[in-house]
Automatic annotation (TrEMBL):
Lineage: Bacteria, Pseudomonadati, Pseudomonadota, Betaproteobacteria, Neisseriales
Keyword Disulfide bond: no
Residue ranges occupied by any HTH luxR-type domain in the UniProt entry: 189-254
Protein name (Swiss-Prot/TrEMBL): LuxR family transcriptional regulator
SUPFAM superfamilies: C-terminal effector domain of the bipartite response regulators (SSF46894), Pheromone-binding domain of LuxR-like quorum-sensing transcription factors (SSF75516)
Length: 258
């Protein structure tokens, strides 16, 4: 099983603590309308004007449910659909079809070729000039992407986007967890809860507080390897792929509290 580093996504302990506080309202939403409003508010606080979440949730007994939460300009979404740009969109190819794990910072090199260049030029005309797209994949086979974008290029350019990456990834994971809950609630499906051992619960709680494996080991007076072992077990039991997803799901399920 692969593990992630303590600096996963570049989020410091302070950033994670700030994010958990910021996302409390997000985890409490009870409707799609409330989810849209809350994600927009958080996106704005992170310094972005636009956002888009798109993906599938697996529901037992039915086809996977497609869920789109768009904070993009509505005319662009219509143009995108009418032109069937999903078939040539390099962002979709990277995040969904290619099942990549790495974030994607937008640049002109992604849109090489006549058709993709036209897509890129039209997107920018609608105010989608610079941004980041984040793939989301979980063990159940669900795939999604989350993008944040601005109508202009920041003077700091790629440095600004890189600095925003960690918080954007946290927002992506928390949005996914809320989407999953709303979809399963709609289909009256109970979200399964994992049975964690006391030590797994302790390690997860400190991870949610932004502590590294080394810091958690010092707090619990156990080895760093043991902490990683317990966190890997938590990741497996929660059916996710990394520590950030584990924290988001645990908070969503009430296993830990921000």
């Amino acid at each position: 099983m692969s593990t992630t580093s303590d600096k996963e996504g570049g989020c410091s302990a302070y950033a994670i603590e700030r994010a958990l506080s910021l996302f409390e309202d997000l985890l409490a939403v009870q409707s799609v309308e409330e989810l849209h409003r809350t994600v927009r508010q958080i996106t704005t606080k992170l310094g972005f004007e636009h956002f888009l979440y798109g993906g599938y949730v697996r529901v037992e007994g039915v086809q996977p449910v497609e869920f789109i939460l768009s904070g993009y300009p509505e005319p662009w979404m219509e143009q995108y659909k009418q032109s069937n740009y999903i078939e040539i969109d390099p962002i979709v190819a990277h995040c969904i079809r290619g099942k990549r794990q790495t974030p994607l910072v937008w640049n002109e090199h992604l849109f090489e070729g006549k058709e993709r260049l036209q897509l890129w030029e039209e997107a920018r005309a609608y105010g989608l000039q610079s941004g980041i797209s984040l793939p989301l994949h979980v063990r159940s086979g669900e795939d999604a992407l989350f993008s944040v974008a601005n109508p202009t290029t920041s003077p700091a350019g790629a440095d600004y986007l890189a600095a925003s990456l960690g918080m954007a990834q946290l927002l992506a994971n928390y949005t996914y967890e809320v989407v999953r809950r709303l979809v399963l609630d709609q289909h009256q499906m109970e979200i399964p809860r994992a049975a964690l051992t006391e030590r797994e619960q302790e390690c997860l709680t400190w991870a949610a507080a932004g502590k590294t494996a080394w810091e958690t080991a010092a707090i619990l007076t156990i080895s760093e390897r043991t902490v990683r072992f317990h966190l890997d077990n938590v990741i497996r039991k929660l059916g996710v792929n990394n520590r950030r997803q584990a924290v988001a799901r645990a908070v969503s399920l009430g296993l830990v509290h921000p």
